[in-house]
């Protein structure tokens, strides 16, 4: 039987939003994340992070730094995350090797498609929690339902229609991952 996934954006959902997290010291896990992930596991979700990290293309940090950041992230999440997918590319900025349009950079759904293959996921029963329109768009492109965390990227739900190309809104806006899980407990 295929599994369902809870896709998670990283910055602004699991850890405090910051323009670029360049080392583990800058990673601050948000309150309630560990319990929320545990609840999601209990609901039968695979927990899969999908994160744009163009700071690598821009030379702000490298893959070794990212590995250290994600080691700290996993510790803060009690090692509940099944997988962490990252797009290190940027279409117009940074070093030659990583500067190109990429099918995995959200709003493109490449990371979700790859996870679907590697984890044998049923996308139709999967959800994504993100905090930016491009997170929501990536999920909707492959039939994954969505919840949007209100925060720096999306300060108010009424702003949704002002976002360029924002597309279909999420099923609900929530304050944080804790509220997202409260919603999912009712919905699934
Ligand atoms: Mg984010
Ligand atoms: Zn990429």
What do you see in this structure?
With 188 residues, the chain is of the alpha/beta class. The protein has one domain (4-187): Rossmann fold (3-Layer(aba) Sandwich), CATH 3.40.50. The protein contains five helices and six strands. It has helices at 33-42, 63-76, 110-119, 133-141, 177-187; strands at residues 4-8, 45-52, 83-87, 127-130, 145-149, 172-174. Strands 3-2-1-4-5-6 form a six-stranded parallel beta sheet, sandwiched between helices. It binds magnesium ion and zinc ion. Zinc ion binds next to loops. Zinc ion binds at residues 87, 89, 102, 104-105.
Number of E-state strands? 6
Contiguous helical run count: 5
According to CATH, what is the topology? Rossmann fold
Instruction: Report helical residue fraction.
Output: 25-40%
Write down the domain tally.
1
Bound molecules: magnesium ion, zinc ion
Indicate the low-confidence ranges by residue numbers: none
Query: What fraction of residues sit in β-strands?
Result: 15-25%
Largest sheet: 6 strands, parallel
Biggest sheet: strands side by side, in what order? 3-2-1-4-5-6
- Full CATH superfamily name: HAD superfamily/HAD-like
Q: Output the CATH class name.
A: Alpha Beta
Radius of gyration: 15 Å
Coarse structural class: alpha/beta
For the record, the CATH architecture stands as 3-Layer(aba) Sandwich
Categorize the overall geometry: globular
N- to C-terminal separation? 17 Å
**SSE ordering:** EHEHEHEHEEH
> For the residues shown, what is the average pLDDT?
95
């Amino acid at each position: 039987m295929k599994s369902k996934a809870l896709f998670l954006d990283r910055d602004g959902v699991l850890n405090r939003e910051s323009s670029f997290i360049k080392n583990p010291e800058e990673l601050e896990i948000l309150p309630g994340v560990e319990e929320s992930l545990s609840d999601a596991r209990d609901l039968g979700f695979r927990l899969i992070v999908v994160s744009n990290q163009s700071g690598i293309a821009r030379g702000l940090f490298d893959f070794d730094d990212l590995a250290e950041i994600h080691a700290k992230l996993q510790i803060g999440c009690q090692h509940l995350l099944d997988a962490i997918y990252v797009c290190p590319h940027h279409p117009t900025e940074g070093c030659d090797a990583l500067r190109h349009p990429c099918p995995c950079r959200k709003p493109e759904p490449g990371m979700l498609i790859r996870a679907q293959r590697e984890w044998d996921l049923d996308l139709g029963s999967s959800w994504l929690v993100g905090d930016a329109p491009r997170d929501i768009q990536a999920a909707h492109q492959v039939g994954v339902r969505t919840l949007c965390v209100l925060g720096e990227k999306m300060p108010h739900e009424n702003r949704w229609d002002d976002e360029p190309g924002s597309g279909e809104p999420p099923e609900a806006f929530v304050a944080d991952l804790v509220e997202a899980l409260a919603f999912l407990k009712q919905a699934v």
